[in-house]
């Protein structure tokens, strides 16, 4: 049964049987490994290559398990290439296994993989499986960019492929790997959503990740249209990853902890919409496997990078669309993230939108009642039982702000909604008798009793704190205000900078490139064609 699955467990099995078959010169074993135990092509290694990777080389379970599965995929493929070169295994599906090596490297920041789905935070580019993958991929492509990854790994396999990498490195052939803005489609046909990666400022600059992928089988989390943000070499807007201490005997022997199900997989543990305090697909991954987001838009220019996707089956009668952009401007020292999430439902509901962030709070820009002598728990199930409530505001449509400090840089988050919302400051760790959870903060926007609502916000990196030299620079936000304006079929998010300049990002409900849109706001008319447009105004301009 395991041998004939389309799953990484079966990949290990078929690779072992197939490589043993080559050693024993037993073609029957090899054929079963390639085409399944019945040798009908419905299972086996070739079917797994065809079904588990997207055309861009994205693996269904996400980067962490792509790393894990890479070993049997590339090692067995290398054995096939040596013994049956007529299979052209590295050319199969337009070289999808070689694309898988490249897409895995792209799915990283600061040397660590994006921790989406079940993932351990400290797994990265130096992992054993990718050492094998880089060597084998370099032997096939002689791509000098792969050599720069091998330099970071500081070791090679003791194989002909590893020798080729080592020789090339001694000859100074390495070129920097081109970490860039890419859309990695998901699904065998590339139609099951996508992982969107927007980058600015080089490898350790700003990286926005929007997770619009499929469920990812049993290791997938309930986090449709989730996002992460990296800057200054740090995880700023975070994903918890898996609740597991790999191989630490004191923590249940190193296996997945109960809190992986009760917290880490639940929607509230992520940066996306929660409806009525329940997780997407009611926490059933088999249902989630049947439904994927619809990728609507992906575009990248010098000063505007944008991605948009829609999810319609995570909750009955609820559709939500999220658009995120990484925007640069001469008056902003660093690019900012603009976030717009629009919800449409058939009945009023409670909507929660968490933001899990990393850093020390500097300033709470809204009035809130603090829990100073006791810490109430936010809820009873679906992850809510693991959240302490530290502060809570009244409901309001006023825009608010929160700022924090991380690794010498300040981050200001301005946010609002089209309906009255409460702002909650929470921390993970409640109902955790064995201290299995990390204590991490989050901000939750909560809207009650509405069917339709739009959440909007802007995250701004700025300034510097230097503890050694004892100075602070640029600690105040350069954004004075954020405003949302709704038209008939579009919305406009307007940022006003401290110098009076304005940045307006217009987002249409329909991403059709041929449709025209118009929004009128405060005497200003915004007209454009397509899914989005950007309008900049200098100070004093009408």
Main β-sheet: number of strands, strand sense, barrel status? 8 strands, antiparallel
Could you tell me the mean pLDDT?
96
Number of strands: 29
Q: Tell me the strand order in the biggest sheet.
A: 9-10-11-12-21-18-17-14
Q: Could you give the distance between the termini?
A: 68 Å
- Estimated share of beta-strand residues: 25-35%
Low-confidence regions: none
Structural class, by secondary structure, is alpha+beta
Which range best describes the helical content: under 10%, 10-25%, 25-40%, 40-55%, 55-70% or over 70%? 10-25%
| General form | globular
Oligomer: single chain
What gyration radius follows from the Cα positions, in whole Å? 24 Å
Tally of individual helices: 10
Would you kindly provide a written description of the structure presented here, covering whatever features stand out?
The protein is an alpha+beta fold and 542 residues long. The protein has helices spanning 8-24, 27-35, 45-52, 63-83, 92-106, 128-141, 144-153, 160-170, 258-264, 285-288; strands at 108-109, 112-113, 182-185, 194-200, 206-212, 226-231, 234-237, 274-275, 294-300, 304-315, 318-327, 336-345, 349-356, 360-364, 369-370, 387-392, 400-406, 409-417, 422-428, 441-450, 453-462, 464-466, 471-473, 479-486, 490-497, 502-508, 516-521, 524-529, 532-537. Helix 1 (8-24) packs antiparallel against helix 2, helix 4 (63-83) packs across helix 6 (128-141) and helix 6 (128-141) packs across helix 8. The mean pLDDT is 96.
């Amino acid at each position: 049964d395991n041998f004939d699955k389309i799953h990484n467990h079966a990949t290990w099995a078929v690779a072992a049987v197939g490589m043993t078959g080559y050693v024993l010169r037993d073609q029957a074993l090899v054929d079963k490994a390639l085409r399944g135990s019945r040798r009908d092509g419905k299972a086996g290694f070739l079917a797994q290559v065809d079904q588990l990777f997207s055309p861009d080389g994205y693996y269904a379970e996400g980067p962490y398990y792509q790393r894990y599965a890479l070993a049997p995929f590339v090692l067995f493929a290398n054995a096939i290439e040596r013994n049956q070169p007529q299979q052209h295994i590295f050319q199969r599906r337009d070289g999808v296994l070689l694309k898988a090596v490249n897409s895995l490297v792209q799915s990283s920041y600061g040397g660590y993989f994006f921790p989406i789905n079940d993932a351990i935070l400290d797994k990265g580019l130096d992992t054993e499986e990718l050492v094998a993958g880089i060597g084998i991929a370099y032997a096939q492509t002689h791509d000098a960019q792969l050599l720069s990854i091998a330099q970071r790994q500081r070791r090679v396999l003791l194989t002909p492929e590893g020798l080729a990498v080592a020789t090339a490195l001694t000859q100074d052939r390495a070129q920097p790997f081109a970490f860039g803005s890419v859309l990695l489609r998901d699904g065998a046909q590339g139609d099951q959503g996508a992982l969107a990666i927007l980058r600015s400022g080089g490898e350790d600059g700003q990286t926005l990740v929007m997770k619009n992928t499929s469920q990812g089988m049993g290791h997938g989390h309930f986090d449709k249209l989730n996002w992460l943000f990296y800057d200054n070499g740090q995880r700023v807007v975070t994903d918890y990853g898996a609740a597991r201490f790999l191989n630490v005997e004191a923590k249940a022997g190193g296996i997945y902890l109960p809190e992986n199900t009760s917290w880490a997989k639940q929607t509230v543990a992520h940066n996306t919409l929660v409806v009525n305090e329940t997780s997407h697909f009611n926490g059933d991954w088999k249902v989630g496997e049947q439904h994927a987001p619809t990728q609507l838009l992906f575009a990248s220019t010098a000063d505007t990078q944008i991605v948009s996707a829609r999810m319609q089956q995570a909750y009955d009668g609820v559709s939500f669309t999220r658009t995120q952009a990484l925007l640069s401007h001469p008056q902003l020292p660093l690019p900012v993230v603009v976030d717009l999430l629009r919800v449409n439902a058939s009945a009023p509901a409670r909507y929660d939108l968490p933001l899990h962030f990393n850093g020390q709070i500097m300033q709470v820009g809204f009035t809130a009642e603090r829990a100073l002598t006791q810490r109430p728990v936010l809820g009873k199930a679906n992850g809510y039982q693991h959240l302490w409530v530290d502060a809570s505001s009244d409901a309001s449509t006023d825009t608010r702000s929160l700022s924090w400090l991380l690794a010498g840089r300040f981050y200001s988050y301005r946010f609002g909604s089209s309906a009255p919302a409460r702002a909650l400051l929470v921390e993970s760790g409640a109902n955790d008798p064995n201290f299995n959870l990390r204590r991490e903060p989050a901000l939750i926007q909560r809207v009650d009793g509405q069917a339709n609502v739009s959440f909007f916000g802007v995250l701004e990196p700025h300034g510097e704190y230097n503890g050694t030299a004892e100075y602070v620079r640029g600690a105040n936000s350069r954004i004075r205000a954020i405003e949302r304006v709704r038209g008939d079929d579009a919305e406009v998010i307007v940022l006003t900078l401290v110098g009076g300049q304005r940045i307006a990002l217009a987002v249409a409900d329909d991403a059709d490139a041929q449709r025209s849109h118009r929004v009128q706001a405060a005497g200003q008319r915004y007209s454009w064609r397509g899914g989005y447009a950007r309008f900049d105004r200098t100070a004093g301009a009408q």
